[in-house]
Design goal:
Blueprint: E1 5-10, H1 16-27, E2 31-35, H2 42-54, E3 60-63, H3 68-78, E4 83-87, H4 89-98, H5 111-131, E5 136-141, H6 152-171, E6 174-179, E7 182-185, H7 186-194
Parallel strand pairs: 1-5, 1-6, 2-3, 2-4, 4-5
Antiparallel strand pairs: 6-7
Helix pairs in contact: 3-5, 4-5, 4-6, 5-6
Length: 195
């Protein structure tokens, strides 16, 4: 097993998580699934429960709404895995932007502080990836194709997630964009254009 970072991007309901969940067992049977969602309301708690129930019982799950790098390192130290599947960077970035903010803070987000939290999280994630010997699959949303969000925290989120996606894409050996459930190999297309 060799270390490789695979980034899977797509819009909402594009099939990115399903594709990642099909790809992971093709790499190896011992899957370490890293869930980043937080149950901040009843609807999200219900979604999390559905996702938990749908995962194969043989997969180990680590719930890490932040501090993903150290959480994965600790999980791999406790028991080996063949592949790490992180779903998803989208929520991880959101969690770091919203960390410690109240409802009143959302209209006046300190963009530099949010950026520092997101940068530290992505740095920690990439550092952990480079210290492990297993492939990682990271799922993330591509949110830069739609309208500009009409509120400040939405614009900060769009910009910081776009930055995080670029950081991971630069480090990834493979990058797929899911469109209507179909994977498009972005790295291969990029290489063909630059050749």
């Amino acid at each position: 097993m060799t270390r490789e970072l695979i980034l899977i991007l797509g819009g909402a309901r594009s099939g990115k998580s399903s594709y990642a969940e099909r790809l992971a067992p093709q790499i190896g049977e011992r899957v370490l699934y890293v869930a980043t969602a937080e149950a901040r309301d009843v609807e999200m708690a219900a979604r999390i429960a559905v996702h938990r129930a749908a995962r194969p019982a043989t997969w180990r799950t680590v719930e890490a709404p932040s501090g993903v790098g150290p959480a994965v390192q600790a999980a791999l130290a406790a028991a080996p895995a063949d592949v790490v599947l992180l779903d998803c960077l989208t929520l991880l970035v959101s969690n770091r932007i919203l960390a410690g903010l109240s409802e009143a803070d959302l209209d006046n987000v300190d963009e530099r502080a949010a950026q520092a939290r997101v940068e530290a999280e992505v740095d920690g994630l990439l550092e952990a990836f480079h210290t492990t010997d297993v492939p990682w699959i990271v799922v993330s949303n591509e949110v830069g194709l739609g309208l500009v969000p009409p509120y400040p925290v939405g614009r900060v989120y769009r910009d910081l997630l776009g930055w995080a996606n670029q950081r991971l894409a630069a480090a990834a050996g493979r990058v797929y964009l899911l469109v209507a459930g179909l994977p498009v190999d972005v790295k291969a297309l990029s290489a063909a254009v630059t050749d």
